[in-house]
Amino acid sequence: MGVLGPQKYITTNPYSATTAAITPDKRAEMVAQSIAAAKAKGMTAAGYLQDNVGFQSMMNSKGLFAYNTDTGVDFSLTVRTPDGTGSGYVSRGFNDVSKLDTASVSNIAVNKATGSANAKALEPGKYTVILEPAAVAVMLENLFYGMDARSADEGRSFLSKPGGGNKIGQKLVDERVTIYSDPAHPELPTSPWAGDGQALNKVTWIDKGVVKQIPVSRYWAQQKKIAPVPFPNTAIMQGGTQSLEDLIKGTQKGILVTRLWYIRSVDPQTLLLTGLTRDGTFYIENGKIKHAVKNFRFNESPIIMLNNLEAIGKSERTVSGESSNNYLLPPLKIRDFTFSSLSDAV
Question: In 21-153, where does DSSP find H-type helix?
Answer without folding.
Answer: 24-39, 102-116, 133-144, 149-153
